[in-house]
Amino acid sequence: PKPENIKIYRSKAEAENEGLRPCLRCRPDLSPQSPLWEGTGAVVNRALRYINMEQQESLAVVADKLGITDRHLRRLFDEHLGASPMDVLLSDRLHTARALLCQTQLSITDIAFASGFNSIRRFNDAFKKKYRRQPKEFRSKKQTQETDLVVHLNYFAPYDWDGIFTFLKRHCVYGTESIHGEEFHRFLKVNSSLVKVRVKNAKEALEVSIENCKVADLRYVIKKVRSVFDIDHNPHILMQNKLKGRQKWIGTRIPGSFDIFETMITIILGQLVSTEMAQKKVQKLVQLYGQKVSEECVLFPTPQALVKADFSTIGMTRTREAAIKEICKIAIQGKLEALTPKELLNIRGIGPWTVEMIRMRCFGEVDAYPSTDLIVQRAEKVFKINSEKWSPWRAYLALWIWRRYAQELSYKRGKDEKIL
After folding, report:
1. Over its length of 420 residues, how does the chain's per-residue pLDDT go in tens digits?
2. Inter-axis angle of helices 85-103 and 59-66, nearest 10
3. With the C-alpha atoms ordered 198, 200, 203, 205, is the resulting torsion angle positive or negative?
4. HSE-up of 244 (CA within 13 Å, CB side)?
5. Helices and strands (H, E) in the chain, number of each type
6. Residue 331, SS3?
7. I need a labelling partner for 353 at 20 to 30 A (CA). Which of 99, 129, 202, 409 fits?
8. How far apart (Å, rounded) are the C-alpha atoms in residues 337 and 323?
């Protein structure tokens, strides 16, 4: 279409507030969302994480965790998304419901509660208001009977499945994560249930199989998978601005976190040691202080267990032990999500590399950049990389460097050295 015939909205919720609904044929609402923002937008990003994951918390509680007033939070949402927090939450719930209606055999009642609605009446009213259709009209005729719940999460292609799969494989958390062929398996303790998630790549989507999940917890689990596999990233932004002509690596994704406490601890254990050595330390920690719930699953130790733990048998410095215990205390207080980079850096035993890795993996901050990493430093020198030109997408640059540099080790220096 001609530019004069196009109107750009800042979010799906803003478009829906003006009476628009997603196309019933191409279903754009099942595709990823907008990219993250810089500055005050980072506050909005964290607020969205709270709203999506903590379904029962009020806006005032979310604002308090972020250290701002709920009025200011509403103002930021209007600035960046053109909609209120409740509009965004309603939009997200409707999109989750549409995905489940189209792809699963769950009853409409179950889908209503799985999407975060408290009653069938509100669920039906929301569909009529936003889509001007009944929920049953979105039912797919191609549904198949499955023993487990299977959902396809669409992503923007290209998607470097091999890259994120290899990263997660090398950083599998002993006891809860494993690799089976081309599938990634993960156990999640969600309220009183032990949920098992299996993820594999399909055509322009990730196929997610979910076992033993209560209907009320389904939305939470799907949100976690979306975050860990960075499904909401739009690679075409990089293609247009940073990576013209470099299609091979355009699908790079940031591996997220199923549990930010767990990921923070594993990152600290990985300081100044090889990936293999870090994996051994994580395994020993889980074996000593984790909770065995089945032959397949040993849950990662809780903050309460680690704050009193004796780390002498694991083989780590007192400084690193002190850092882990400080993180445990913050987690027990319920303030882990609200930690700022400055507060992290002030913890004895946590340096710049660790802070940037936590920003990248735990908080999904796309401009996090571990500039002190030895491989990154060497690549910057050899390939004459100016990381500042990549802002605000430097996390993708770092992951790209790690992936490309490992591959380049087996080749002689040549014309491709300056490709970055």
Report:
1. 788 888 887 777 778 778 787 775 555 554 444 444 445 566 777 777 666 655 455 677 777 777 778 888 888 888 877 888 878 778 878 878 887 887 788 888 888 888 888 888 888 888 888 888 888 877 765 554 444 689 999 888 889 999 999 999 999 999 999 999 999 999 999 988 999 999 999 988 999 999 999 888 888 899 899 999 999 888 877 665 555 545 567 889 999 999 999 999 999 999 888 889 999 999 999 999 999 999 899 999 999 999 999 888 888 889 999 999 999 999 999 889 888 899 999 999 999 999 999 999 999 888 999 999 988 988 888 888 889 888 888 999 999 888 877 656 334 344 444 433
2. 110
3. positive
4. 2
5. 18, 7
6. helix
7. 409
8. 17
Amino acid at 330: I
d(C-alpha 105, C-alpha 405), whole Å: 45
How is residue 298 annotated by DSSP? E
For the residues of 64-109, what is the DSSP string, one character each?
HHHTS-HHHHHHHHHHHHSS-HHHHHHHHHHHHHHHHHHH----HH
Q: How many other CB atoms are found less than 10 A from the CB of residue 131?
A: 18
Scanning the structure block, which residue is given the tokens 């409707």? 94
Q: Indicate yes or no: pTM above 0.90.
A: no
DSSP line for 160-198: -HHHHHHHHHHTPPTTTEEEETTEEEEEEEETTEEEEEE
Q: In the numeric block, which tokens belong to residue 45?
A: 């990003």
CB neighbour list of residue 282: distance below 8 Å, 6 or more residues apart: 173, 174, 266, 269
Q: Where are the alpha helices (DSSP H) in 195-346?
A: 218-228, 236-241, 260-269, 275-289, 303-306, 318-332, 341-345
Residues 196 and 186: beta-carbon distance below 8 Å: yes
**Cα 165 → chain centroid:** 14
* 3-state class (DSSP) for residue 304: helix
Residue owning tokens 């478009």: 15
CA atoms within 13 A on the CB side of 137: 9
How far apart are the C-alpha atoms of 246 and 68, rounded to whole Å? Answer: 41
Calpha distance 400→370 (Å, rounded)? 13
CA pair distance 49, 36, nearest whole angstrom: 12
Widest CA span of the chain, in angstroms? 67
**3-state class (DSSP) for residue 310:** coil
